[in-house]
Amino acid sequence: LQTSEPFPLIDVHDLPEDCIVMARALRSLLSGATSIDLSDNGTALRFITVLSALLKTDITISGSERLMSRPNDEARDAAKQLRQYAWRAQETYEVNTTARTTSQHISALLMAGILLPRGLKIRVEGQVISRPYIDLTITVLRSQGIAVIEHENTYLVANGVIDRQDFSSCPADWSSAVYAYEMLLTDVADELLIKGLRRDSGQPDSAVASIAEQLGIVSEQTAEGVIISKIPSFRSYPQLTLDAALYPDSIPALAVALAVTGRQYHVINAHVLRGKESDRIEGIRHALQQLNIQTQYSNGVLISHNCLPLQPLKQSVTIETCNDHRIALAFAVLPKNMNIEIDNKDCVKKSFPNFFR
Fold first, then answer.
1. If you ran DSSP here, which 8-state letter would residue 264 be given?
2. Strands 60-62 and 35-37
3. Nearest C-alpha neighbor of 161 from the set 119, 220, 203, 212
4. Cβ neighbour number for residue 312 with a 10 Å cutoff
5. CA-closest candidate to residue 274, choices 244, 246, 294, 295
6. Contact 228, 194 (CB under 8 A)
7. Is 227 helix (H, G, I), strand (E, B) or coil?
8. Every domain of the chain and the residues it spans
9. Do the domains 174-350 and 17-167 match in fold?
């Protein structure tokens, strides 16, 4: 949005569908399109809702039935405020919002703020969910020389310019790396190198490394990436408390890995999982129930008391994934001798297009 230059042409053959959808949506905004199809991309929904408010034309956003039912009221309300005065000459541009269901629209507002002549003040009222993602956005903006002042739940971002060339090499994604950790937790592998991953990337899902350390898996930073390996003869299995508000995308893999290996856990703030690609609370619980692993959910807490490792099944079980890529991947990486299949392999293209090749 800061340049009239087109986005560089890229080979989308191996890109996750989410990246392709976002890139096409941004191209559509630049080309003056009046309608944008976001398929099933929740991140694009929040970002495009906010960024489209900076344009002088109305944009119709469409997508899958599930996408249109996902929480987006906070982003829509913020966009309405932004559009009221986005291009008017005034001293202060200000948006008042909440972040009770997601923080993605806050990140979008921070990015939108650098496009406004006098920047943008963002006031967030009440509890802020997934605050680490806001912190990560601020870190990226500051690395580009963009001034961001934060005080409690108020953020002031200045006008500025992003240098696209600085993003030619980005660290690997921790919410994808969690499946490698799951492979070690379930004895599929003893050691793996996750190329491009960095412990200091600031990504909230990097908490997976600390969680895995409590389960006997160490993470070593190298020039190539992070090497994860199992501590020999590790026998301490604490009951873990996981926080879905801090690293929601890693919860399906962790919940499945811990349940099938007989490790008890609590997932607090699990209610945030209801508004994802599927209702992940019910999706995880139903899939584990297919393996005769019982869980409980009450007052935002998901609990597994299972303390017996899952034994290889005599008959194949096809896991119902609810068309959710993270539930599908969480079960797809389990040991092959467990005799588990998944019902919709194509859904993993959203994040891992070549996973089954």
1. -
2. parallel
3. 119
4. 10
5. 244
6. yes
7. strand
8. 17-167, 174-350
9. yes
Task: Extract the tokens encoding 352.
Answer: 């891992």
H-helix or E-strand spanning residue 121:
strand 120-128
Buried b (16+ CB within 10 A) or exposed e, 241-279: ebbbbbbbbbbbbbbbbbbbbebebbbbbbbbbbbbbbb
Assigned CATH topology for domain 17-167: UDP-n-acetylglucosamine1-carboxyvinyl-transferase; Chain (3.65.10)
Return averaged pLDDT per consecutive 10 residues of the chain, 357 residues in all: 48 73 90 92 94 88 93 94 72 88 94 90 93 90 93 93 64 90 95 93 93 96 96 84 94 96 94 93 96 95 90 93 95 94 92 84
CATH code for the domain defined by 174-350 = 3.65.10.10
DSSP 3-state assignment of 108? helix
Q: Say how far apart CA 218 and CA 81 lie, in whole Å.
A: 47
β strands within 2-114, DSSP E:
35-37, 60-62, 94-99
Measure the CA–CA gap between 42 and 340, rounded to whole angstroms: 29
| Local structure of 228: helix, strand or coil | strand
Residue 62: beta bridge partners?
37
Length of the chain: 357
Asked if 252 and 286 touch (Cβ cutoff 8 Å), the reply is: no
CA 238 from centre of chain: 26
Angstrom distance (rounded) from CA 237 to CA 178: 19
- φ, ψ of residue 95 to 5 degrees: the values are -125, 130
Q: Name the token pair of 61.
A: 């956003």
Vertex 119 angle, CA 94 and 130, to 5°: 70
DSSP letter for each residue of 325-338: HHHHHHHHTS-GGG
